[in-house]
Design goal:
- The protein has about 375 residues and is α/β, with parallel strands linked by helices.
- The protein contains ten helices and nine strands.
- About 30% of the residues lie in helices and about 15% in strands.
- The relative contact order is 0.10.
- It comes from Trapa incisa.
Length: about 375
Amino acid sequence: MRIILTIFFGVLFGFFIGVSFPTLSLTKFNPSSTLLPEADFSNSYGGNIETLVKPVLNATESPHLNDSSKIWAPSNPRGAERLAPRIIAAESDLYLHRLWGNPNEDLTSTPKYLVTFTVGYDQRNNIDAAVKKFSENFTIVLFHYDGRTTEWGEFEWSKRAIHISAPKQTKWWYAKRFLHPDIVAPYDYIFIWDEDLGVENFDAERYIKLVRKHGLEISQPGIESKTRITWKMTKRRDDFEVHKETDEKPGRCPDPHLPPCAAFIEIMAPVFSRDAWRCVWYMLQNDLVHGWGLDFVLRKCVEPAHDKIGVVDSQWVVHQSVPSLRNQGEQYEGKSPWRGVRERCLNEWSMFQDRLAHAERAYFSSTRTGPSKLKSL
């Protein structure tokens, strides 16, 4: 009886307690609404935030469908096979965008050409003169090997230029890492120039017209210099608009259609068409940063090379031979900085030749083509 009475009075007491207090609905208790201030996202995002964060379910994401309905597009770029092809943005550009407004209204113009200079601040006046030879049809990129970027703000054009900085790096190091063909795809021509070029007798727009007129895929302006010019092919000719071949010292040109008598330019001021650059970029080696030897094999990227590679004589530049980047080296094995850099250049040339020869032999071997078919370097 004692146990029964205890249970009875306990239930009765609980009943009276329950009817004595207002009903508490858990659905009305919202910690986020009572403890945290309410944020108005409608103004920040120009609409209801819920419509932006709500998952967009499509047929392939429905939990009621099996795996066979998921996207797999093998024609997409590698790694993007799970995406719908129409959302793929395989190429990009170097156009500068604003941070506000309608993205479709960002660009008032889209430059058709790209020019890059690898620079140190000490050559600022020369670069200022050079940049002014390029119209607004050009995107301007400065690769800074000395780490000084903010100082260039003294030039008005610097505000629309792109500045990329890495200490003591060459233009080919920058080109391999920042000028991927899919990044520079919108540009018809890509200029990859040194910083020590006098441009008093050069006009970029006229240069482009001559390149188109003569069908040049890889080119450079004619060179004048107060010092010795290494290769006769690059020297400006007074009586030509464009030249594609030359005579060299005896023994230098066993074939008149091969470098350095034809199909040849130097790497100080090269200009590439979009298609030619796509090929050349893949030939650049990550660790061979000076690019020596590259000028002798550019011909592998165009056909026929002796007709598609040339020097524009009527738009010419002066090579001022300022050894600025060369002096960025350090003493190595008791050698002066500039000598260490030069030896590295020569070693890279030899290494590049060996790699290319081995790659071509492997290719012809795999296709069962006799070694006699291997083109000379």
